Amino acid sequence: MKNAVKSVVTLTLITVVAGLLLGYVYELTKDPIAAKELEAKYNAYRAVFPAAADFKASDKIDIASSKDVLNGSGLYKESIDECLTAVDASGKALGYVLTVTTSEGYGGDITISMGISLDGVLNGIEILSISETAGLGMKADTAEFKGQFKDKKVSQFNYTKSGASAEYEVDAISGATITTNAMVNAVNAGLVYTGSLAGGQDE
Question: Is residue 69 part of a domain?
Fold first, then answer.
């Protein structure tokens, strides 16, 4: 009986100490991790909108309304996490940079950044977070796949397995249709949302 009580007390102490250490490590690392994530996001914004000198929040952009906009287009599993105005050195609006998340990935959520000019041209996309299958879905994070969206002006994209022949078509990743669909829907969510902002951008 005495040994059992001793074991329980020992295990409890170990659990408490481990919990305290984990809490300490979390507090110690959360700020550097957040800083790295922010840096990665802004590096992606600069990549998808290289002409911009800065990216600014605008009171004319209400992210809370984005869900209704996306739902109205059948994009129920996508969300707009952030939308900033891309501006030049004089502060003139050039377009938008967005962070978009889709929950339709094979391996879970996929988060992308994208830059869209005021004239509706998609400058490009970058992937911020992805956990797809190596050698299959992870091919979404290659220049070859992402380049299919670059410098295109379309209202939405579709994927095809028979070879893209139109501006709005992208070639599906072989063996990774689910990932391809998720990527296309994420991009379409950004296009739909910025399209809803037409006429409301900063000048």
Answer: yes
